[in-house]
Amino acid sequence: MSDALRILRTGSGDAIFLALEADLDAFLTILNGEKDDFFSALNHAVPLQHAVLAVTGEQAVGCGAFKPLPKGEVEIKRMFVLPEARGVRIAERVLNELLAWARELGYSRAILETHVDLTAARRLYERNGFEVIPNYPPYEDIKTSVCYGWNIKTRI
After folding, report:
1. 109 CB neighbour count, 10 Å cutoff
2. Each residue of 13-27: pLDDT tens digit?
3. Which H helix or E strand runs over 64?
4. How many structural domains does the chain have?
5. What confidence tens digit (pLDDT) does each residue in 114-128 have?
6. Domain range enclosing 96
7. pTM (whole model) above 0.85
8. What is the CATH number of the domain that holds 9?
9. Residue 134: phi, psi to the nearest 5?
10. Residue 135 has what DSSP assignment?
11. What does the alpha-carbon distance between residue 84 and residue 61 come to, in Å, rounded to a whole number?
């Protein structure tokens, strides 16, 4: 990846975002096992107006999105980086762009859910100031879920 990384704002209807999301879904189907129908329904229930693509050269290598929630919160969703592009902090750039966008729109808090076994993702969130919070609905009774929260307004 010698080309400069560009971060582009888009929506979940973008064809390039949808292609990366298909790769993410294939990965999650294996990870989630018998609970995949539960998680899949949550991930595709609402179109996301706020999505980000990480692009190097002509190839999209990562994505993420957020969903507005009540009380000035957003939920970070659909974070993914292609396996061959990992290890160079692309996910961090995507996450930071999502948080900056949410801040610009006046949101005050970000929450997210990830799988307990996704240690690289968990390190990413913790390295960027997210703290473990009690699992929020609908993840309260899902033992493989770990939820995080972060106050957008206290960040830079």
Report:
1. 17
2. 899 999 998 888 786
3. strand 59-69
4. 1
5. 999 899 999 999 999
6. 5-154
7. yes
8. 3.40.630.30
9. -60, 145
10. P
11. 8
